[in-house]
Amino acid sequence: MILYRALLFDLDGTLSDTDALHSPAWLNLLKRHGVEADEEFYRNRISGRSNAVIVRELLPNLTDDEVQTVIDAKEADFRDLATDLEPLPGLLDFMEEGRRRNMKVALVTNAPGTNVPIVLAALGIKRYFDEVVLADEVGAGKPDPAPYTAALQRFGLDPEEALAFEDSPSGIASATGAGIPTVGIASTQKPDLLLDAGAFVTAEDFTDPKLWALLEG
Prior knowledge:
This protein folds into 2 domains: 6-17 and 85-216, 3-Layer(aba) Sandwich (Rossmann fold), CATH 3.40.50.1000; 19-83, Orthogonal Bundle (DNA polymerase, domain 1), CATH 1.10.150. The chain has 11 helices and 6 strands. The protein has helices at 19-32, 39-46, 51-58, 64-81, 91-100, 116-123, 135-138, 146-155, 169-177, 191-197, 209-216; strands at 6-9, 104-109, 131-134, 162-166, 182-185, 201-203. A 6-stranded parallel β-sheet has the order 3-2-1-4-5-6. Helix 1 crosses helix 4. The protein starts with 5 loop residues before the first strand and ends with a helix.
């Protein structure tokens, strides 16, 4: 059995059901710009991708300044609602066990840096993280492997020594592209889709005994 030395967590959809807030914010924004979309569209075209890529693809006629204005407005709407977030079932106990075993813990996210402290505070989990890796700071967002490669470098670990947790095909592509074994958290997508994307196992949340067994090594 592999003895993992670090746990690397995505933020949105992995630590909490943030899609319950992100989805209506995106769909309302797109509607104001003449783009009709639904929940399936959100899952397939938006979830797990970086804001800039989303806006440039779906609203291609905007200038760079207008793209940023749209992103800022959407994320401000999200932050106004974020205080109501709750961690996925079992997350706090799972992270506590990881820390008890002296595992390093990092957040690896495409989310804007302004969102991260608000979400972590709402979930009560800021104290668990040794590192926070923001896609904006490493120069490339998921599905590029760069954010996860940066996390490995900060901990001085080889890919097989870390375990990643992701809820989207984009995030799984990023983690597995960095060579990291990845768990698919099926909070926003169907398990088969996450397995097809490269996850080696899936779970609905952190109460699943399969995930706890991974901590044992």
